[in-house]
Specification:
By secondary structure, this protein is mainly alpha-helical. The chain contains 5 helices and no strands.
Amino acid sequence: MKNRNNPNEPKPNADDEDFPDGDFSSADSADTDIADADGNPPRPTGSLPGIAAIAVWLLLEALIGVAGVFKGQFSGHSTRLAVLAIATLLAIASLGLMQLKRWGWALALGAAFLSSSYGLYCIVRFHQSQYWVLTLVNFVFFFYLIRPEILRRLK
């Protein structure tokens, strides 16, 4: 067997004995399209940058909720517990989404939709214009998550 790491040895070319007729299609490569036993095409692997951004956004929303509880912005014991429960679900959704799990996708999709719906409610009902950024970002993330390319990457 040839030592391919030797700098003095010439580089292999199409005339090499491994590929006598110059056909490189038989080479082992990680990106070959091999269908599974049912004939389904292979699932793409790897995370998309949008998924990482959504996961960071969900963690940021969770941290904002926890900081609000610790700063005493929520009155009443049950309100604090509800905010902490929602922050926990946001953090779990973020971790599941980073692992490309279907349950993480479902939690993130629900969180994006409910958060944008809450922001829209605050804008319409209470005329709080500071919720526009939160609402628009969550709507963009919701529409990003429902793309078919995202669903194909989930486990």
